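Hey, I was hoping to borrow your eyes for a little while. I've been staring at a protein lately and its backbone has me curious. You're getting the sequence in one-letter code plus the fold written as tokens. Would you mind checking whether the tokens look sensible for this chain? Here's the protein in full, and shout if anything looks odd to you:
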Amino acid sequence: MEFHELLDNWSRREGRAVLTTIIAVEGHSYRKMGASMLIYENGERIGGISPGCLESDLAERVGEMLVTGSSQVVEYDMRDAEDFAWGEAVGCGGSIRVLLETITESLSVHLSELLKRLNYGEESCFMRLWDSDGRFVYRIEKVHKSEAHITEKGQASLFPHVNDDGGSFLLYCEPRPRLILFGAGADAEPIAAMAGSVGFRVVVTDWREALCCSGDFACCDTIVGLPAEVIGRLGVNGSDYVVIMSHQLQRDRQCLDALWLLSPRYVGLLGSTKRAKQLLDGRMSPAWLHWPVGLSIGADGSMEIAVSIVAELIAVRRQSAGGSVRRGIHASNNHGNLFGSG
């Protein structure tokens, strides 16, 4: 679970809670630096920082922390292969340090502000600074990813680590990537739902108002308008993800033409290779254009096609965050079968 998703969950729940965050890792661990979890007073947990082996111990600390309103750092060393309580049972074989923070009024205010900024699409740095009394002073600053040191999974930035003698903990927070679906047909509904469930902010747009109104798009925004008009209104840029799927050749071409100079992070064309070539109209396919859309998994039917498309979105997203390119990811000029079903 990404940090913005954790904040979304927190904002919709009541009750006192402790925020736990991995702040240092040596060796292998299930989650990386910056991974966070909420533990509520009633024992409810949102997110996770291990396969389940650490959560119970962390939960035991929550009651006292909620009374004192304190913060603490706990270290778990699982590097000893002979220690059956950790090494072999867990299978991680690493050492991690976990920061636990009671969500006080001050932290709550800053988390709410951070969520607001992320919802507006603003990249932010959430700063925790030790004061002379051994408590955190919180600060939020606008920052661009190029200015931050991102971990290999793109989840967080830590410079330097928190330590017992003071210092600071800086967490780079990236807003949900935006996915724009041009076409509000029935086949867009599973894509919108699935992409939303894995952390994308989904916008569905179509020039046919009836489709936008009748479709099952309750969990995302819908906009009625012609492609060029909507692209301008949305301010599409290089960080956006787009799937063109109106099933109307002229409108799809208008959409691709309007996107051409904007170079989004990802544009997928639904349809056959022949149809994609018609849309390209003799132009060289840029690296951000994927056709036919979706990973080649032999997908059949709207639900499986949605799985293949969302899987490709995740693959491109993780690659852009510093992850490795996995075998099977196809970009431009990958000539699979209809709808990327390969």
